[in-house]
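Hi R.,

Here's the chain you asked about this morning:
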Amino acid sequence: RNGEYLYIKHDGSLDDGLELVTHPMSLEFQLRQMPWEALCRKAVSLGYQSHRAHTCGLHVHVSRRAFGEQEWEQDRAIARVLYFFEKHWEELLKFSRRTPRQLEHWAARYGYKEYPKDILDHAKKGTNGSRYTCVNLQNDSTIKFRIFRGTLKYNTLIATLQLIERICDVAIFLSDEELKAMS
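And the predicted structure, written out as tokens:
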């Protein structure tokens, strides 16, 4: 039955492991129907490590369409996501459960700019095709949050999904000025 929700994939960036990939689903579905708690318990009982493996990441994809129908709407909101990450980097670093060195390798930042659009422009030009950025923009249909260290703790997984949802809400519903004033 879990095949309806997720599948297992080989990940070449892992020394010895696998990648669990979910089919697209809302946060509400993740919270109410996805058997994350049982899955995490089972993985731990089988000896899987995730967080302790040091190479495992928790990556969350969000549909670009969640940010608007038109590309300009999407770009405007995605620019705010990137701005949020740069402005609140120290707090997100703590929440990510990664070290600064791990982030440099697996989820580099773009660099702070005064305006959200400037960060997006820099991200589109300056990443040299690297997928190892905190918010990966290379996929045509999703943006991928790569900052988080892997986990087999249910509460940590859910908190991560909820945080991403809130960051996206802030990017969609606040103006640039409101975002900049936010502490």
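The mean pLDDT is 88.

Let me know if you need anything else.
M.
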